[in-house]
């Protein structure tokens, strides 16, 4: 009988993303092989535990986020997988959230609400925050807009410095144009922004719309107003890490070494539930498309809601939203198709009918044009990831 493998997990359980990783690892273990798990309670950024340097088990999955842990891990002679964006140890398998995709989803979330002013609030000590900032700025700049950035000068450790940082943040927030869409690097940072907004009388979401990352449901619901947040595929990332380690412990190799997983979407709550559109007629059109996109509407139906010619409507809509009314109708229908493909057992014909397409063939062509894969392939690739992730009920 094969000896049970002993696996160490160097992953904190103090935040939603890390708990998602652990959940995914547990899911893989339960489905494939019962490993003996060694894990202790640990806070984020903590030095390596004393037992790590003498660990003689069969494998390790770790968030290698500081040099101290990296130095110990490099000396280990066992298979290991990294689940941190810091990339402190090269040439080992690595699986993480796609931070560029997170930034893209955030930008699209604000643009579809009509925002033309953007900002990012991050943390210099985390590589994933820096990557999200850089990608978000790139999407904003490529679209012809500007992005304001706030990052702490240093990591506050004393009451005085905490107050100083809050004052700096308040000055930054008060100087932003109204309205501005802010992407915070993660939910905890977004909560800090909301606290400052409340203290200084900045209205959310009317003046500042705020989007976090991680979809920590408890934290998001405790925020005032409740916080919209991007849902990372943390659970699936944990599963992938466990699968990689399983291969390595059985003498195999992992190719490619790096794997980035797409986020699952946005859990929209009150903090971004707003339209930042000064043009009342275009705002009316956006609401109409949002509410009726799956009712089989076309641009002629849209024109009945506003006293504009098609040429004027399309010009003004394009300049504000960045798409034509027809493109916006199709985009929202495709979003609904994606949701139904993953969440339901409906046939493609039933989905096409529910989403306002003329027939299944037209839906399939439109879907493939937007997503680069046929609907059936998208369902196969995405459903398991969605259903395995415990955050899916809020997406």
UniProtKB/TrEMBL annotation:
Transmembrane segments: none annotated. Pfam families: HTH_18, PBP1_XylR, Peripla_BP_3. Residues 283-381 form the HTH araC/xylS-type domain. One of its GO terms (molecular function) is transcription cis-regulatory region binding. This is Xylose operon regulatory protein. Keywords: DNA-binding, Transcription, Transcription regulation. SMART domains: HTH_ARAC (SM00342). Gene3D superfamilies: 3.40.50.2300, Homeodomain-like. SUPFAM superfamilies: Homeodomain-like, Periplasmic binding protein-like I. InterPro entries: Homeodomain-like_sf, HTH_AraC, LacI/GalR-like_sensor, Peripla_BP_I, XylR_PBP1. It comes from Rubripirellula tenax. It comes from the Bacteria.
């Amino acid at each position: 009988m094969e000896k049970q493998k002993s696996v160490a997990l160097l992953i904190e359980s103090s935040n939603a993303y890390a708990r998602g990783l652990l959940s995914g690892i547990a899911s893989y273990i339960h489905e494939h092989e019962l490993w003996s798990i060694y894990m202790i309670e640990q806070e984020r950024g903590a030095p390596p535990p004393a037992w790590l340097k003498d660990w003689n088990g069969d494998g390790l999955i770790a968030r290698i986020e500081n040099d101290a842990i990296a130095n110990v891990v490099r000396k280990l002679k066992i298979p290991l997988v990294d689940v941190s964006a810091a990339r402190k140890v090269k040439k080992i398998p690595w699986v993480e959230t796609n931070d560029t995709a997170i930034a893209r989803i955030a930008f699209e979330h604000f643009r579809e609400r009509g925002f033309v002013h953007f900002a990012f609030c991050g943390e210099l000590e985390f590589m994933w925050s820096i990557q999200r900032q850089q990608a978000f700025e790139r999407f904003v700049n490529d679209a012809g807009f500007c992005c304001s950035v706030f990052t702490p000068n240093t990591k506050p450790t004393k009451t005085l410095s905490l107050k100083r940082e809050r004052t700096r943040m308040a000055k930054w927030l008060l100087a932003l144009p109204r309205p501005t869409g802010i992407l915070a690097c993660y939910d905890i940072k977004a909560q800090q922004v909301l606290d400052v907004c409340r203290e200084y009388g900045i209205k959310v979401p009317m003046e500042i719309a705020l989007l976090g990352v991680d979809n920590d449901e408890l934290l998001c619901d405790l925020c005032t107003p409740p916080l919209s947040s991007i849902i990372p595929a943390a659970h699936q990332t944990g599963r992938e890490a466990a699968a990689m380690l399983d291969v390595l412990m059985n003498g195999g190799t992992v190719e490619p070494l790096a794997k980035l997983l797409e986020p699952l979407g946005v859990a929209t709550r009150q903090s971004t539930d707003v339209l930042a559109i000064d043009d009342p007629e275009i705002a009316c059109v956006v609401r109409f498309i949002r509410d009726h996109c799956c009712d089989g509407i076309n641009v002629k139906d849209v024109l009945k809601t506003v006293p504009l010619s098609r040429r004027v409507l399309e010009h003004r809509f394009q300049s504000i939203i960045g798409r034509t009314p027809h493109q916006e109708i199709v985009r929202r229908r495709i979003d609904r198709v994606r949701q139904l493909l993953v969440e339901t057992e409906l046939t493609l014909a039933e989905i096409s009918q529910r989403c306002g397409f003329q027939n299944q063939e037209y839906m399939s062509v439109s879907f493939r044009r937007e997503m680069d894969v046929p609907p059936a392939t998208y369902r196969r690739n995405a459903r398991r990831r969605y259903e395995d992730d415990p955050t899916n009920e809020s997406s």
